[in-house]
Structure formats: C-alpha cells, structure tokens
Write a structure and sequence with these properties.
Elements lengths: L2 H18 L23 E4 L4 E4 L6 E9 L32 H5 L1 E5 L21 E5 H4 L2 H16 L1 E9 L19 E10 L2 E10 L12 E2 L1 H8 L23
Antiparallel strand pairs: 1-2, 2-3, 3-6, 4-5, 6-7, 7-8, 8-9
C-alpha cells in the first residue's frame, strides 16, 4: 500500500478514536449515567454494549472499565475465550493476540479480564469481554486466586440484589516485566483496583479493593480491602462524579464477608 495512503487511513482512524476521548462519557453502564473522570485527556473511550473503558494510549491498557452486573446476564452457557483486538481502537493503541505469545511461560501472566466474561455469559454480547482492550497481563496467582474469588462474590451479590455497578482498573506503582513478544511499547500494571456500588433503597453503599500483582492464590480478597477515597487518591479519578458526597465508603464490605 502507498505509504501516504496508509498514513492517511491510520490518521483518520486515530482521530476518530481520539475524538471519542472528548465525548461525554455518559453511559447507562455507569451509575447515574456518569462515568469516571480525571483520566488523561489523550485516553480513548471505547463504549461497548456491556462495558465502557478508558484506554490509555501510553500504557496500552485501560485506566478504568465500568460495567453493570445484572442477575439476568449471569449463569449462561460455557463461553470460549477467543481473543480479539478491540474494533473501536486503532492499531497501536491496544494490544493484539500475538502480543501475548509466551507471556505465561516467560512471566507467569494470564490474560486477565477487567470486565469478567462470567458476568455476561447470558448475553449475546459476551464475546466483547474478549477484546484485548479489556485484558491485561495479570499474574496467575492473582487472576486465579483472590481476584477471581472477588468477581465470583460480586456475581453472588448481583443474584441477591438484582444488580451492582462496578468500576475496575489498573495502577502503576512499581515496574513490572513487559510482555516478551509484544510489538508495541507498553507498561504492565503492578496492581488492580475494583470498586463496587450498590444503590439499595436510595442508600449508596460501596466496597473497594486494591490487589497487587504479588498477591498469592491462597490469599483472601478481604486481605486487600480499601475504600473509595483511597482508590480515588491512588488513581486520581473521580469514580462516581454524580454521586453525592454522603456515599458510604465501606458499608458494603460486610456483604463480602470482610
């Protein structure tokens, strides 16, 4: 392909996605249709049917992913993990399947979902969770241990209450080994956070967790409790911009058994 034509096509695609970063991040997937703010202005917004995320063009991973866990979307048939590049993001702004080659054998990384597949197994859009914009290199001990247990408990509470709002994302507090065969420069997260919000009888309750990549499979997720104020300080994000300041920062933790 002519280099000038290729550059033009790439630029148009990039500008299309770049313009999304300035669009309103109102979404029914976020509480009161108001998604987090405070991420870098260069981030790209990818708004899918079952989650919305803010893709960081420097790390190549999402700073935050927001989704709603609803009881009717749970307990579907077994679904497969077919990894795909996010169609809403231009090449070079997110990783692609081959970038994860030998990641587990070399560094012990799983392809860790931020919006989990199991939360959407009963929807027609379940495969969107396999977009690599929604994936990060997550240590197996963490991904298959306390992180997985936490996601399972969120689903249990969605069955109990009907629905929950969740925002999850990445932290970069210390250097991590890069993916050995990635074609693009990237930065692997050193920790992950998750904030769960329940609107229960007009009372807003939250539970928050921060888990490092050094977590062990045998760890309890309760070992990594935090609160929304701490998460917002660490991420420099306003997670629920439309939420009144009277939100209870740790009141939901008891339902997690913590």
């Amino acid at each position: 392909m002519n280099k000038i034509l290729y550059f033009s096509i790439t630029l148009i695609g990039s500008l299309f996605a770049f313009n999304q970063s300035f669009a309103s991040t109102q979404s029914t997937l976020c509480f009161e249709d108001s998604c987090p703010n405070g991420a870098p202005s260069s981030n790209l917004i990818a708004d899918h049917h079952i989650f919305i995320l803010s893709a960081n063009i420097n790390t190549l991973f999402a700073d935050w992913v927001a989704y709603k866990v609803e009881s009717q979307n749970l307990d579907g048939p077994s679904r497969s993990r077919y990894w795909k590049k996010d169609p809403l993001l231009p090449s070079g702004y997110t990783l692609e399947p081959d970038d994860y080659k030998d990641a587990h054998a070399t560094e012990g990384y799983d392809r860790g979902h931020q919006a989990p597949l199991a939360a959407f197994s009963n929807t027609e859009y379940w495969s969107e969770t396999n977009y690599l914009s929604n994936i990060t290199p997550q240590k197996s001990e963490l991904n298959q241990g306390p992180w997985n247990q936490l996601e399972s408990k969120v689903r249990d509470l969605a069955r109990k209450h009907g629905s929950l709002y969740v925002i999850t994302g990445t932290l970069y507090q210390s250097p991590m080994p890069a993916l050995p065969n990635a074609q693009y420069n990237h930065e692997v997260p050193s920790a992950y956070w998750k904030v769960i919000l329940l609107d229960h009888d007009n009372t807003l309750e939250t539970a928050s967790f921060i888990m490092p990549q050094t977590a062990k499979r045998s760890d309890s997720y309760c070992s990594y409790t935090s609160d929304i104020n701490n998460v917002q300080a660490e991420t420099k994000l306003s997670l629920f911009p439309s939420t009144p300041s009277v939100i209870k920062p740790t009141s939901l933790l008891s339902e997690f058994g913590c």
